[in-house]
Write a structure and sequence with these properties.
The protein is an alpha+beta fold. Among the domains are: 26-80 and 206-286, Distorted Sandwich (Calcium-transporting ATPase, cytoplasmic transduction domain A); 420-437 and 835-1058, Up-down Bundle (Calcium-transporting ATPase, transmembrane domain), CATH 1.20.1110.10; 445-470 and 676-821, 3-Layer(aba) Sandwich (Rossmann fold); 476-671, 3-Layer(aba) Sandwich (Calcium-transporting ATPase, cytoplasmic domain N). The chain contains 38 helices and 26 strands. Strands 10, 11, 14, 15, 16, 17, 18, 19 and 20 form a nine-stranded mixed sheet that branches. The protein has an eight-stranded mixed sheet with strand order 8-26-25-24-9-21-23-22, with helices on both faces. Strands 1, 2, 3, 4, 5, 6 and 7 form a seven-stranded antiparallel sheet that branches. Mean pLDDT is 76; it is low at 1-20, 134-144, 290-348, 1065-1087 and 1113-1171. It catalyses: Ca(2+)(in) + ATP + H2O = Ca(2+)(out) + ADP + phosphate + H(+).
Length: 1171
Amino acid sequence: MTNPTEHALPANSMVESREGDFGCTVMDLRKLMELRSTDGVDQINVHYGGVMNLCSRLKTNPVEGLSGNPADLEKRKQVFGQNLIPPKKPKTFLELVWEALQDVTLIILEIAAIISLVLSFYRPPGEENKQCGLPVSSPEDEGEAEAGWIEGAAILFSVIIVVLVTAFNDWSKEKQFRGLQNRIEKEQKFAVIRNGHIIQLPVAEIVVGDIAQIKYGDLLPADGILIQGNDLKIDESSLTGESDHVKKSLERDPMLLSGTHVMEGSGRMVVTAVGINSQTGIIFTLLGANEGEEEEKKKKGKKQGVPENRNKAKTQDGVALEIQPLNSQEGIDNEEKEKKAAKLPKKEKSVLQGKLTRLAVQIGKAGLIMSAITVLILILYFVIDNFVIHRRPWLSECTPIYIQYFVKFFIIGITVLVVAVPEGLPLAVTISLAYSVKKMMKDNNLVRHLDACETMGNATAICSDKTGTLTMNRMTVVQAYIGDTHYHQLPSPDVLVPKVLDLIVNGISINSAYTSKIMPPEKEGGLPRQVGNKTECALLGFVTDLKQDYHAVRNEVPEEKLYKVYTFNSVRKSMSTVIEKPSGGYRMYSKGASEIILRKCNRILDKRGEVVPFKNKDRDEMVRTVIEPMASEGLRTICIAYRDFNDGEPPWDNESEILTELTCIAVVGIEDPVRPEVPEAIAKCKRAGITVRMVTGDNINTARAIATKCGIVTPGDDFLCLEGKEFNRLIRNEKGEVEQEKLDKIWPKLRVLARSSPTDKHTLVKGIIDSTVGEQRQVVAVTGDGTNDGPALKKADVGFAMGIAGTDVAKEASDIILTDDNFTSIVKAVMWGRNVYDSISKFLQFQLTVNVVAVIVAFTGACITQDSPLKAVQMLWVNLIMDTFASLALATEPPTESLLKRRPYGRNKPLISRTMMKNILGHAVYQLTVIFFLVFAGEKFFDIDSGRKAPLHSPPSQHYTIIFNTFVLMQLFNEINSRKIHGERNVFAGIFRNLIFCSVVLGTFISQIIIVEFGGKPFSCTKLTLSQWFWCLFIGIGELLWGQVISTIPTQSLKFLKEAGHGTTKEEITKDAEGLDEIDHAEMELRRGQILWFRGLNRIQTQIDVINTFQTGASFKGVLKRQTMGQHLDVKHVPSSSYVTVAPVTSPPTTSVPAAVSSPTLGNQSGESVP
């Protein structure tokens, strides 16, 4: 083989000569990679003279790899490109500003401000005409006229501030996201052979000509051609849309494409195309080229994030925040995409989003009604006063003045509306989520989808893996059964017969992935590092403990000499490797789960190392005396066996024939200790009302032992521990279909599912989510690390992938990546999720109190005194600025352990509970009493001039300044009250842990002093004396005392209080919503009308059918067939016994008709009943 370094040219030589320097150009390789299966093989053989020749053209050695010479690597990068796909340009700050301006509330404000500005400069004719009536509250007086523009300008100014804050937030989020993406890219590594050594190389460093090691669970980082493969199967659905796994082999189909997943097997490939020249890269380039289409895609983006143009292969590890990786199939035509879309489970809007959307709509409606009434009353008052009481005629020259009046009324109405809408809400949600996501990084949770963080707070069930999540994933062999002897401690090598020892060492060293190895410890005196598959590392450690060297065996039998490998997969649950014996014939070593391998053994080695028959009764005896005792101690049992083929070549493809008649060498018990912090974490989950279920591939005894150690099951509990087979038998009908009804009887009690396949996991998760048993739908979190956990992770409400042990495929399907693979991090995620929910409730409690008071004050003031006691600019200070900071203060409360002491809220629990409603209305009563007292009697109390009937050009009065100041100080102290939403008494608990809160409160107070003392005309304020300040403060502090009074009133006694911001009940998510990517609740409202009409007809039809059935006594099933096929059958709880509730019944035929009818409401099979 030629060594690449000989051909390194001087760095400045011409590109053309370089092109020719390799035996093929970029375009040649691109064309080659576009071919599939046999076409590819022909092209390689005809055009390049075979794979080995292609390697020599690319100046690389198929065994040793590239030399790693920097000049050579640089040259390859220049000729063939780098393994990077340039990311899409980030949005500029101005674009983000433009986006922020699209907010409806802000648009209303802008229009109002502009109208107000224009009118302030407009002088209508006929102003002095006395016949038009006295301009009582006209803003056209001289003094006011000068300041008339201030109001409009101030509104615009505050709009600008809000827009800049929002845009800056988005911009920093985008920047954070980019930083995170870069970090993930750097961490994303792949095994490459350079200079004969396997090294982990960052994906971006891979060049054409590199020899890459591929194994189960990898996501291929570049295009390549297979050099050597064992039982390799690839999932190419991300590129071709074909869901079947494609078998790869040198003879039939050696083409490997970037962005595809290795589902089984292992092998080596030579990299032929990287970056934008790889198949995925070409698709991305096509996508990026068409910006118009790009815009379309953005609108279709599944989550509210922007679908990012990024190389899936490159940063496959997962992207944080809201931006969801764009699947490579975007480049394929739409029908392909729709076919694909039909398969993927849809996630509806997150619980919180749904509730907030509805609440915002409710508040908006209320605000609109209030403002409409205000405008109406003002106009009526004016018309009646002028034309009825004073009997003035309507003069044409007075029309402009009347219009001026009406516009002023309109502005007052708009002010009321502006005050009613909680502008701070979107900001509070964004801040709360972004803050949590940032902090969760420290708690080893890398959040890929923002809403997952909040959904986690509602989780009611966690289905966790065992290995690595509940246990330490540091496997060690602690017991062994060799030659009729059960060793409870590891035997010393001299006890064993040399022949048996030799078989054990070879059986382990050869029959395990050569990527699994044991490295020396990083620190002196530490434990050796286990690299690769942990179970195999435990076995290799066993070889080392027997004072043998597995490296020597592997050097003697390198990977190229392995004749055939049956790699481990979830169906086989075993691995076998065939080698040629020097004396002729073949030997196959097998290892796998003991009960599976022992079933295939018919011989065993005895004490002397002789082969003796192994009958069924011997096997049962061994299971009873060896395997079960090991398993009950929580050990994982692995059997090592072999088989010789001496007469000719057997049919290797017929697995069932090959994997029989084995000879058992040994059974070992592997311990994987439970993580010390897990039992405490699981106890926390139980207290928090979350059920933890363990789903594992281990046998039932091991699983039960570990579950007991963790505290998932406690002795004497009435809980189920099932094996996958038994589980399937219980939940499937004769046809082998899963029946929700049967599953509903099992899952509430199920705690351990052992020997389960990934399909079982998916079935369980889907069954729990679709179930209608409890009063509310379960919210399920799932952990997964394997490639085949993808579907379950996608189906779950929150999917956790393992950051260390997880395959790329699992990470791609997940919502949160656990960077330390530890179960306790999941509990932290629950805590953060609940905290987000509480933070937003706290903010709502504060915001709505402000809104209720401000709206009522503006409304009554406008109607009684023709002028609001709180001016528009003051309102804006309270509403826009204070709220923005309050959202910052309340949304950044750190979580406390007490969050885990209550049950999850669930989907239907309203955002604003009765207690919160009590607080909102209670504080509103206090504030309104104070303000109305000050408006109508304040001048007497403080002995100052009244501001009520002040002549218009007079400067701002102390009277109204005191009202404004008191109002703001009451809000400020109420902000402290809002820190608690469950009726706790101590509102100061932990206040100093939140520096942001303290600084916001202090900052707002200082700003208020400045506004009152120096705000002057724009803020309609004047200076106050010290005693007046103290009175204002005193009234403000009264809020805290009043808060204590409110918390003494028991919420139960206030039955009349309504809750607000309910979630969507499951029944409301009708079938027609299933097609939508995200269920939009506003749209659902509109569609519901049409649905009800059809439903009415459907229901009448059903009832007629039922009556007919009972008259004829025909079989129940026949009647319902029509219903269940085409339509959704309605289910309704009817309290009176005179109705019969019908549900699709899929019970075994033995059930009698009346029994089926009287059974409780079952809902339809998909688990979504319809209202």
